[in-house]
Amino acid sequence: MTQTKITLTPEQADAFGRELDAIKERVMADLGQRDADYIRRVIKAQRALEVGGRALLYFPPAWLAGTAMLGISKILDNMEIGHNIMHGQYDWMRDPTIRGGEFEWDTACPADQWRHSHNYMHHTHTNIVGMDRDIGYGILRMSEDQRWSPYFLGNPLYAFLLMVLFQYGVALHELETERIRAGEISVADKREVLQAIWQKTRKQVLKDYVAFPLLAGPFAPFVFSGNLTANLMRNVWSYMIIFCGHFPDGTQEFTVEETQGESRGMWYFRQVLGSANLTGGKLFHILSGHLSHQIEHHLFPDIPAQRYSEIAGEVEEICRRYGIPYNKGPLLRQFGTVVRKIVKLALPPKDRAETTPKDRERVAA
C-alpha cells in the first residue's frame, strides 16, 4: 500500500516534542501509591493463577480450567509484569524484587539479552531498516525496504513457526541470525550469547516438561500437555499483540539516512508513525501488558504502562493537530492486515531492477 509522505518542519517537530515532554513530566511527577499498589496486585494475581492452575492440572477433570489459568499467568508474567518491569517502569519504587536491571522472567529469553535487543536496539532505532532487529526478527521480510531473495518465499511459514514458538524466536533475537546468514559474523562470534540462551532455555524446558510432570506421577501426561498448551497460549498471544503494534497497515519504516541527526521531536514523530494501537476493554489492555497502547509505549517506555490509557486521548489529539496519523483499530482487523503484509512481502517486487519504493524515489531524483 502506497503511503503519503508526512513530515514536520524543524519548528513543528520541536513544538511537538515539547508537548509530549510535558505529558511525560506531568505523569512522572504524579507517580505514587496507586501505581505501586497496581503492580503488586498484578503480581499477586499472577502468582495465584500460576499456583492454582498448576494444582488443577493434577486433576484431569479440571485440566481445561488449570491450563487456562496457567496460560493467563504466563501471559501476565510476560506482558504486564516482565516486559514493563524490565523497562524500569517501577524503579522509582526502590523495590529490589521489581528492579528493571535485575528482573528475570518466566520465558526462554535471558533477561539481560532482552534488555539490550529490545530496550536499547528496538526502542532507540524503532523501525529503522538495518538497525531495528524487531523488523522481521531476523527471519521475516516485514518491510519493502528489506531486499527480497528467494528465501522470503517462505515468509508465511516462517511467520507461523515464529508465532507458535515465539519465546524461542525472542530468545534467539540477540543471536543476530540474519548477520550469520549473510556471512557478516559466525556462530563462534556468538558463543557467549548461545551459552546464555541454552542455559535459560534448558531451565525452562526442565521446569515445564520434566520437573512438574514427574511430580504429577500418573497424571504426568496431563501436566505435560497443560504446560505445553499454556506456553502456546502465551506465545500466540504475545506474537499477535506485538506484531499488531508494529506491522499493520499504516505503520512506516525508515532508512538510516532519513533518521540521521534527528531531533527529540523527530524521534517522537518516528515512534508514532512506526507504531499502532489496539482498541479494547480494560481486561484486554491488562492482558496485552498495555502494549495495546503501543504508540504511547514507544513514546514513553519508562512510564508505568497502566498510565497509557489515561494519556492516549491527549496524545491522539496532539497528533491530530500536527497532522500526524494516529493508527488504532481492533485486534482482529489489525492482525488481518499483518497477515496480508506477510504474504505480500513473500513475493518478489514487480520490478526486480528497483528493489524498493525508496530505491525508485532515489532513481527518479
UniProtKB/TrEMBL annotation:
Pfam families listed in its UniProt record: FA_desaturase (PF00487)
GO term, biological process aspect, one: lipid metabolic process
Residue ranges of domain Fatty acid desaturase in the record: 62-328
Domain of life: Bacteria
GO cellular component: membrane
InterPro entries, per database record: FA_desaturase_dom, Fatty_acid_desaturase
TM region(s), chain numbering: 151-170, 209-230
Molecular function GO labels: oxidoreductase activity, acting on paired donors, with oxidation of a pair of donors resulting in the reduction of molecular oxygen to two molecules of water
Keywords linked to the UniProt accession: Membrane, Transmembrane, Transmembrane helix
Name this protein carries in UniProt: Fatty acid desaturase
